[in-house]
Design brief:
Elements: H1 8-35, H2 52-55, E1 59-63, H3 71-74, E2 90-93, E3 95-98, E4 104-107, E5 113-118, E6 136-139, E7 158-164, E8 171-179, E9 190-194, E10 197-202, E11 210-217, E12 224-230, E13 240-247
Antiparallel strand pairs: 1-5, 2-7, 3-4, 5-6, 6-13, 7-12, 8-11, 8-13, 9-10, 9-12
């Protein structure tokens, strides 16, 4: 067997390969990590913590990040909770009408307040069910809406939404849990939207948490809007949501 001593070019290529392989491996590992990235902020509604001791109960409402910390006090509303806002989520009151075909026509509602309920030790679960994960869950037919003088009624439905840092035209998986609070038909209807495209509508009463999983391809633009909208009867008894997760490449 003859051994041929490598020339300078071959030695240079070998050295380059030696340095390139770790870099390539690191890039591959980084890509795998990115593929499993969690893109939803505060999908379990564990923050902020409901101030149970201060309120003497396990639920309250908070404005989202599209409001100011002083808005509650400026409107002389109840339970301002020190101006705490819900991290990750923006919240609007969701007013709507129906057209002749039964399609929803949204009406500007302005910054709203999402109701967050906390499980309390040795006490019955609020709304008849404990949180799907952690200690807190959200209800999207909320409380504490400002009542303008002279207006007979206001809608307590809210839409919660956030923009996910997605990559263009990439595959993602949405997972979440929901539960209708009452057995009344249409009372807890929940619409899920990604980038202005309705994904699904849920709301029929079932005894426990209902798990949903949906795969989608992001749009050609970076970033993706994820929204959960309560469109049921606005009587403060609506759909619970918890455990919201979107995983895929972090854009």
């Amino acid at each position: 067997m003859f051994y041929s001593k490598p020339d300078n070019a071959a030695r240079s290529a070998t050295r380059s390969l030696r340095y390139l392989l770790p870099a390539t491996l690191a890039a591959a590992l980084a890509a795998q990590t990115a593929a499993a990235a969690e893109l939803v902020v505060n999908g379990g509604f564990e923050d902020p913590v409901v101030p149970v001791a201060e309120l003497g109960k396990g639920w309250t409402t908070f404005y989202g990040e599209n409001a100011t910390a002083t808005m509650c006090e400026e409107k002389l509303e109840q339970e301002c909770n020190g101006g705490m806002l819900v991290p990750g989520w923006q919240v609007d009151w969701f007013d709507f009408d129906l057209d002749a075909m039964g399609n929803i026509i949204a009406i500007e509602g302005g910054p709203g307040r999402v109701e967050i309920q906390r499980d309390l030790p040795n006490e019955p679960a609020l709304g008849g069910i404990s949180a799907y994960e952690g200690d807190q869950k959200a209800e999207l037919d909320s409380h504490h809406r400002y009542q303008p003088p002279g207006k007979d009624a206001v809608s307590n439905n809210v839409v919660i939404y956030q923009t996910l840092p997605t990559c263009p035209l990439s595959s993602y998986e949405l997972n979440f849990a929901w539960k209708a609070r009452t057995e009344d038909e249409g009372d807890s209807t929940l619409l899920v939207v990604v980038n202005d495209m309705p994904l699904l509508t849920v709301g029929d009463f079932k005894p426990g948490w209902q798990e949903e999983s949906y795969k989608f391809i992001s749009s050609s633009d970076p970033g993706q809007l994820l929204a959960f909208t309560s469109v049921g009867v606005a009587n403060t008894l609506g759909a619970f949501v918890d455990g919201i997760s979107v995983q895929g490449p972090d854009g």
